[in-house]
Amino acid sequence: MENILKDKINNLEKLIENTGKIAVAFSGGIDSTFLLFMSKKVLGNKNVIAITGNSFAIPEKELSFCKERAKELEIKHIVVRTSEFLEESYIKNDRMRCYFCKISLFKTITAYIPKTYGAAVGTNADDALRVNDRPDMLAEKEFDILSPLKEAYFCKSDIRQASKFFGIDIWDKPQTTCLATRIPFGNIITHDKIKMIAASEEILAENGFKEAKVRHYGKLAKIELPKEHAALLVNSGSIGSLIKDIKHTGFKYVAIDLEGYTI
């Protein structure tokens, strides 16, 4: 391990230690998983809480992972239902969508966290460089949410490298986003749309395309995958049955983006 990364780890441990007790907003991604692991390492499992927002826009497999990982780490895990789908500001789906989602999340989790615990998220240094297109970070400031990874200058590659060093098995887990991001801005978010997206992505995952995203364009489902996987899907012997199954979720048309997806 490089000395620079060792220094970052030392700084992170000091930041976590200074909290005394910490509640990690645990989404199941590599960032929050690493933060949760390091929090237990520094403070012990009795002084750490994992808290997960159970949103309709979060894939069920991610929630299951959170429950399993918290159990493995022997950390108290709180799962709370979030209420962003009750907020007009969220479901109208403008470019501040992520901000309103985080406002709902932080309102909920801070109500459940004991006052002696500091609430923390897995925001990293790379995220901080994208503040202009990350309105959710405004919500972090409004609720005084801690960002130890960002403060210790951990970028995504640092997190992956450190996670691999500490034996965290998902160190190379692909970055994921919530299902609401599959709906273009300006198109309202509904439970039915989310269900169609979730079911379609599950169909693809069950057939080996675990990184596939399904964009909701009304009657059209647009499948996006890493570019190198798009050709595999097109030439798959099961492409016909896959399209048929996806149509059964409620879509009338199915298209495949051959250029590959963007997060």
From TrEMBL:
Residues 17-84 form the NAD/GMP synthase domain. It comes from the Bacteria. The keyword Transport does not apply. Coiled coil: none annotated. The keyword Transferase applies. GO terms for biological process: purine nucleotide metabolic process. Keywords: Transferase. The active site is at 178 (nucleophile and sulfur donor). GO terms for molecular function: sulfurtransferase activity. The gene is larE. This is ATP-dependent sacrificial sulfur transferase LarE.
